[in-house]
Structure formats: structure tokens, C-alpha cells
Specification:
This protein is α+β, with helices and mostly antiparallel strands. It is built from five helices and nine strands.
Length: 230
């Protein structure tokens, strides 16, 4: 089975579990105001190219806002693929300045060894409290994540997130979080847009960051940024 096929199978397993009301991984608890949400995470993000961000905004976010404006939609400039989580959102944060320095050194030593990352954005997945674009990642992306994850664990800052996909590494681009249960028109529109595709995306760098669940610009603090080989 190809790695693409493994990821597709994992995406479908997660989606089927959600349909049955089962959350098999960490879920961000909904809040009414994600913009002012004080819960912060320590994570590493690779922002999408601006042209792709704009295409997603016009293809997905605007049509969904029209049918359900009550949900929390990402700004175009905030759209990203998470490379490796370190600590999930919490207030107060679940990490210390010492944890940040350990993570900074780990990323500095590992990220530059890897070539520019690639992922293919196609299809949507509904999660318990959000909707995301499926990001089918390369084997190099998988290897980077596994090396980072092991180095973080070995140095006392293990990733505290629970992953529904098990040993299969995939990515996603979350673009809306639920403040309440969306209306039926929202889910109908998601179904209509479900087979969307944004093609292959090249990720040139990754940023170690503190950020809230909406990745809102007002909450962002970039700790350091690392470039992949070109």
C-alpha cells in the first residue's frame, strides 16, 4: 500500500469514528470567542503560500460564512499545516520557558537536514469541533515528524497530543472551528465542497510558535523559524 493510500485510509477511519460520535484524538474544546481565547499552544506551523491561502478563503470560507456566520473562521493569512505539536492549548499554558528553549534547539538541529516539504491538499474532513482540508504528506514529511517527536520525548518535552491516526502521519489545514453545533445548511455546504482540491503545495520553512486555537494573528508569537533545504 502506498503512503498516500495509508493516509487516505486513516482519514476515512477518523471520519467514520466522528460520524459515530467517537473522538479518537485530542479535541479543542469549543469557546464562543476564539479571537480573544487566552488558551495557548506551543507548536510548529508551516504557513501555506499566500495564493493558496486566498484560494481556500474564497473557495471554502466565504461560502460557509454565508450559510453559518456563527462559527469561528480562520483568517486567510493564518491558514497552515501543523508540522509537530508540542503542547496543546491551555490557560495557563502547559509549557515553560525551559521547554521552549529545548524545543528551539531540537528544531534548529533537525529541520535544516530535510528537503523542502510537499503535501497535497484535497478533500475535507469533519472533526468533532472543526472542519479541515486533508493534507496528504510526503514520506519526508513523515520522517521529519517522527524524528522531531522522538527528540522531543528524549529531551523531556514529549508531544502531549493524542492522535486518531495512530502511526500514520498525515496533515490537515483547519479553517473553521465550531462555537456551537453548525446548522444543517453548513453541513450541506461542506458536503457540496467535500471533493475540493488545491493541488500540491511546497512548504519552505517551519515556525516554532505560541498561538491560540484559531491561530489568530493577535495571539501569535514566533519563537524561531527554520528553513528546509532547497
Amino acid at each position: 500500500m502506498s503512503y498516500y493510500a495509508e493516509q487516505k485510509k486513516a482519514f476515512e477511519r477518523v471520519e467514520n469514528a466522528v460520524k459515530k460520535g467517537k473522538a479518537e484524538g485530542s479535541v479543542v474544546d469549543p469557546v464562543q470567542d476564539y479571537v480573544q481565547d487566552k488558551r495557548l499552544s506551543l507548536t510548529s506551523l508551516s504557513f501555506l503560500p499566500p495564493a493558496v491561502q486566498q484560494k481556500i478563503y474564497h473557495t471554502l470560507i466565504i461560502p460557509l460564512q454565508v450559510v453559518d456566520s456563527q462559527q469561528a473562521y480562520f483568517e486567510a493569512r493564518s491558514l497552515h499545516v501543523t508540522v509537530q505539536n508540542i503542547r496543546t492549548v491551555a490557560d495557563p499554558p502547559l509549557y515553560t520557558s525551559a521547554d521552549i528553549e529545548k524545543a528551539r534547539e531540537i528544531f534548529h538541529n533537525i529541520v535544516p537536514k530535510y528537503p523542502l516539504l510537499k503535501c497535497r491538499l484535497e478533500g475535507l474532513n469533519i472533526f468533532p469541533a472543526s472542519v479541515a482540508i486533508r493534507a496528504f504528506v510526503s514520506e519526508e514529511f513523515r520522517d521529519l515528524v517522527l524524528e522531531l517527536r522522538e527528540a522531543l520525548r528524549r529531551n523531556g518535552v514529549p508531544d502531549n497530543k493524542v492522535y486518531a491516526s495512530g502511526n500514520v502521519i498525515f496533515g490537515n489545514v483547519t479553517f473553521v472551528r465550531f462555537t456551537t453545533t453548525p446548522n444543517k445548511d453548513f453541513f450541506a455546504k461542506v458536503e457540496e465542497l467535500k471533493e475540493c482540491s488545491f493541488g500540491e503545495v511546497h512548504l519552505e520553512k517551519v515556525s516554532l510558535m505560541e498561538v491560540n486555537a484559531l491561530c489568530h494573528p493577535s495571539s501569535m508569537r514566533v519563537i524561531d523559524t527554520y528553513s528546509f533545504q532547497k
